Amino acid sequence: MNSQQQGGIVARLRRLFGSRDVAADRQEAAKIYRRAVVRARRPELYMRYKVADTPAGRYEMIAWQVMVELNLLGDRGEDGRRIGQEVVDLMFTDMDRSLRELGVGDPSVGRQMRELGNTWKARVALAQRALPPPATQSDSQGDQQELAVFLERNAGAREAPADGQGLAADLLQILQRLRAEQQGGAP
Asked: Dihedral of CA 38/40/41/45: which sign?
């Protein structure tokens, strides 16, 4: 038996007996978060869909790309929920670091992080309504419309709203493509 086969057996035994590899979870979460950030930084979001190139606009794009990843992790049950929490923890650690790099003082960072936490809860609730669960197609235009209105209002600048319809369609296309890849289908 080679080491790869032994590793597979050990991983199955850990799952069977409830033991888990925290370092492996964190490593996978970091990879997932980096993938979400790369998608959130695509220039087309800012040029074509008119997302404000501000900390708030960038947060909105990162948050929604993380939501796509969390939706996909939901397909994996308890393991997915655990890794998803690691992804969210990484995102908020990154947001804290970013605020400090922008020169936000220590007293204000805590307040702004609480605000981000509160807004995150609203985004989670909307994502649960707007992003289709596994093995379904969202027939509810109301949920997609609600997502589009939300993105238009929150991702754009005050004087130039974002293209909420385009952003919502982009998120749903990414989710469908990633789900197909996850299931072994063509993108």
From this structure: positive
Residues counted in the chain: 187
CA count, 13 A, side-chain hemisphere, 44:
6
pLDDT at 16 (0 to 100): 59
Phi and psi of 160, rounded to 5°? -140, 90
- Top-confidence residue, 110 or 118: 118
- How far, in Å, CA of 130 to CA of 172, rounded? 9
pLDDT attached to residue 49: 97
Q: Is 97 left (phi over 0), alpha (psi -120 to 50) or beta?
A: alpha
Which are the contacts of 163, defined by CB distance < 8 A and separation ≥ 6? 48, 49, 50, 152
Q: What is the mean pLDDT of residues 158-165?
A: 92
Where b means 16+ CB within 10 Å and e means fewer, 29-55 reads: beebbebbbebbeeeebbeebbbbeee
pTM of the model: 0.81
What mean pLDDT comes out for the span 16-38? 86
